[in-house]
Amino acid sequence: MFRPSLPLTLAALLVILPAVLSQPAPDDYNCYAEDEYPYLFFSSKTAYQYIYDKKPQVIPHCKPVQIWTVARHGTRYPSKKEIIRMKDLVNLQSEVMKNYERRDIERKLCEKDLTNLRKWVYNLTLDLDYQLAPQGHDDLFYLAKRMRTKFPILNDAAGFSPEQIQSHFLIRHTQTPRTKESAEAFVEGLFGGRASSIIPPGQDNEMLIKPYINCTPWEQAVDDEIHTREATLFEEGPLMKGLIASVSRRLGFTYNLTLGEIFTRSIFFEQTRTKLH
């Protein structure tokens, strides 16, 4: 029913990359710590609560008779490999602090941002790998709440018994803990809890939820050079080169970082900004 995403609990480094994209001129930058409207769009990592369509859609003379939802699991923590790799953020923290101790540097981070970076503590543990993050629970809980708002007929189900719910609703998930907990959060938002008595056990070979598991050509094509060519051209193009140079200077480096290093450092800045708010 759901596939993976990056956790928002890392909370201090993801803002710098989109911030540079949305603020191309260095003079536009003030303080991330004081930004009341931070950049929130992170592709598939974006929290849905920030981007869903808030306009009510009413179709006259119609009422819903059947509602289908195929949803991804909520925001999860990274894999063990990624958690280990993210420990490099501690070294980055030290490097940035050393950069800003130099007197010859052009200071492009405000004191509040530097203070937040200095206070940041890495707290991910390997046992969190692929587990549902608190943001992930909220993703599905509030998705269900919004469904009740858009389809008031669902409010009647709040008073249903487990037997009535099972006769009117079919809720399925795969066998991973993150999809099970996501389904439970959805049920909690839709019916006010009682997930354990409503949701059947997860299924591994679930064709409706995971149709791609029996599509070998698609699995092979995902990493095919032909299908990633445009992304590669963009990464090597002038816009990304300018972004890399801008981020590198803002962090106090006299040389350009790699794109991979920029990604890791961007996670770090969102971590510090969010954690300390």
Automatic annotation (TrEMBL):
One Pfam family named in its UniProt record: His_Phos_2
Name used for this protein in its record: Multiple inositol polyphosphate phosphatase 1
Keyword field: Hydrolase, Membrane, Signal
Keyword Chloroplast tagged: no
Database matches in PANTHER family: MULTIPLE INOSITOL POLYPHOSPHATE PHOSPHATASE 1, MULTIPLE INOSITOL POLYPHOSPHATE PHOSPHATASE-RELATED
Localization of this protein: Membrane
Catalytic activity: (2R)-2,3-bisphosphoglycerate + H2O = (2R)-2-phosphoglycerate + phosphate; 1D-myo-inositol 1,2,5,6-tetrakisphosphate + H2O = 1D-myo-inositol 1,2,6-trisphosphate + phosphate; 1D-myo-inositol 1,2,4,5,6-pentakisphosphate + H2O = 1D-myo-inositol 1,2,5,6-tetrakisphosphate + phosphate; 1D-myo-inositol hexakisphosphate + H2O = 1D-myo-inositol 1,2,4,5,6-pentakisphosphate + phosphate
Top-rank taxon: Eukaryota
Record family assignment: Belongs to the histidine acid phosphatase family. MINPP1 subfamily.
A single GO cellular-component term on record: membrane
Keyword Flavoprotein: no
Leader peptide range in chain numbering: 1-22
Gene Ontology terms for molecular function: acid phosphatase activity; bisphosphoglycerate 3-phosphatase activity; inositol phosphate phosphatase activity
EC number(s) per entry: 3.1.3.62, 3.1.3.80
